[in-house]
Design a protein that fits this description.
Strand content: 25-35%
Keywords: ATP-binding, Nucleotide-binding, Sugar transport, Transport
Organism: Nonomuraea soli
GO molecular function, one term: ATP hydrolysis activity
Largest sheet: 6 strands, mixed
Shape: elongated
Pfam families: ABC_tran
Radius of gyration: 25 Å
Structural class: alpha+beta
Helix content: 25-40%
CATH superfamily of the largest domain: P-loop containing nucleotide triphosphate hydrolases
Protein name: Multiple sugar transport system ATP-binding protein
Bound molecules: adenosine-5'-triphosphate
Strand order of the largest sheet: 6-7-8-3-9-10
Number of strands: 20
Number of domains: 2
Distance between the termini: 41 Å
Length: about 375
């Protein structure tokens, strides 16, 4: 069991490149913490510093209340699984799984039992006598995972262990990782650039961009209440609508969001009015998910803006309409009659309801 604390951890690579910038973060005992971010944001560098494979330039890494900056990977008692789980090619799967226990001079009987139980849990019993070269990608990753787990370390560190697998195998193994790791209760820090993986696996997600921590929280917290526009945009597979606006509260009667060619009026009874009113006179950035918007008839008298459908896109499970409303085209769910709208018959006849879903704390900086 292990608690990991990062205190302003920084990495500057030789040549001066700042890969990780004062990241402070805690992985609680038994927690599944996911580090999420785009390629090059510093996730692997951070994980390698936790593992002791990369020196920390500044700041501290703490394990269970003790400073660990100078401990070797072995002294930290961590197990790592990488993208292409390197295995010993000349050893069988059984040999690969038992190797960490042999090194630790475990009892051979106990080792046999442990390998048998683990191979069952990972569904690789059939492959125990085969060599890695004869395994599929999914089986190889299972063995790599098993080899990391077999010794029951204090901490698992996983760096994109599923990214080389096809979609079906990724989903299957994702569920197994979750079950296995949770049943062992070992603190796990898992790196990925895949939002779905992060949302489905994590107890908490930490989002990085350009080496800087953007947001930390449970999947529901950061999905529903992202701290920055970057987080909101990154977590959404559908394009997020980001629209600049200035907030006014004319004579304190209502909140007016001035978006240039349009404005929206929110009565004080609207729960979104209070949040926006805190930014009176200031430019803000409104974040709106397509699924939070809805097409409404012209007769609708709630907060809405008029628009013209510019294009429709088929996304398999739904259509998205790109609606021109004087601000950048906003994708919204399918209007009631998509073909008619796409032909332009809808000019000025529809509106968009629910325009204000989320406002970001530092909108100007985010732009
Ligand atoms: P990916 O998902 O593509 O692996 P990542 O978020 O894990 O990306 P890192 O591998 O941590 O990112 O790299 C962060 C930044 O540091 C990148 O710009 C990378 O080019 C740079 N970097 C990584 N290793 C070194 C190195 N040894 N020397 C110089 N720069 C490096």
């Amino acid at each position: 069991m292990s608690t990991v604390v990062l205190d302003k951890v920084t990495k500057v690579y030789p040549g001066g490149f700042l890969a990780v910038d004062r990241v402070s973060l805690k992985a609680e005992n038994g927690e599944f913490l996911v580090l999420l971010g785009p390629s090059g944001c510093g996730k692997s560098t951070l994980l390698r510093m936790i593992a002791g494979l990369e020196e920390v330039t500044d700041g501290d890494v703490w394990f269970d209340g003790k400073i660990a900056n100078l401990l070797s990977p072995r002294e930290r008692d961590v197990a790592m699984v990488f993208q292409n789980g390197a295995l010993y090619p000349h050893r069988t799967v059984r040999g690969n799984l038992s190797f960490p226990l042999e090194i630790a001079k475990e009892d051979p009987g106990a080792t046999r039992d442990r390998v048998a139980n683990l191979s069952k849990a990972l569904h690789i019993e059939e492959t125990l006598d085969r060599r890695p070269g004869t395994l599929s990608g999914g089986q190889r990753q299972r063995v790599a995972m098993g080899r990391a787990i077999v010794r029951q370390p204090k901490l698992f560190l996983m760096d994109e262990p599923l990214s080389n697998l096809d979609a079906g195998m990724r989903t299957e193994l994702r569920m197994e990782i979750s079950q296995l790791v949770r049943s062992l209760g070992v603190t796990t820090i898992y790196v990925t650039h895949d939002q779905v993986e992060a949302l489905t696996l994590a107890d908490r997600i930490a989002i990085l961009n350009r080496g800087v921590l953007q947001d930390v929280g449970t999947p529901a917290q950061i999905y529903n209440d992202p701290a920055t526009a970057f987080t909101a945009a990154f977590l959404n597979s559908q394009q997020l609508n980001l629209v600049s606006a200035v907030v006014h509260t004319p004579q304190n009667n209502y909140v007016l969001l001035d978006m240039g060619p349009h404005h929206l009026i929110l009565p004080w009874s609207d729960p979104r009015a209070y949040a926006t009113s805190q930014y009176v006179g200031k430019p803000i950035l409104l974040g709106m998910r397509p699924d939070g918007l809805a097409p409404v008839p012209e007769s609708y008298d709630g907060p809405s803006v008029l628009g013209r459908v510019r294009a429709l896109e088929y996304h398999g499970h739904e259509w998205l309409a790109y609606v021109e409303c004087g601000i950048p085209a906003v994708p919204v769910p399918e209007p009631p009659d998509p073909r008619a709208k796409a032909n332009g018959h809808a000019a000025g006849t529809g509106g968009l309801r629910g325009m204000v879903q989320r406002m970001f704390r530092s909108p100007v900086d985010e732009q």
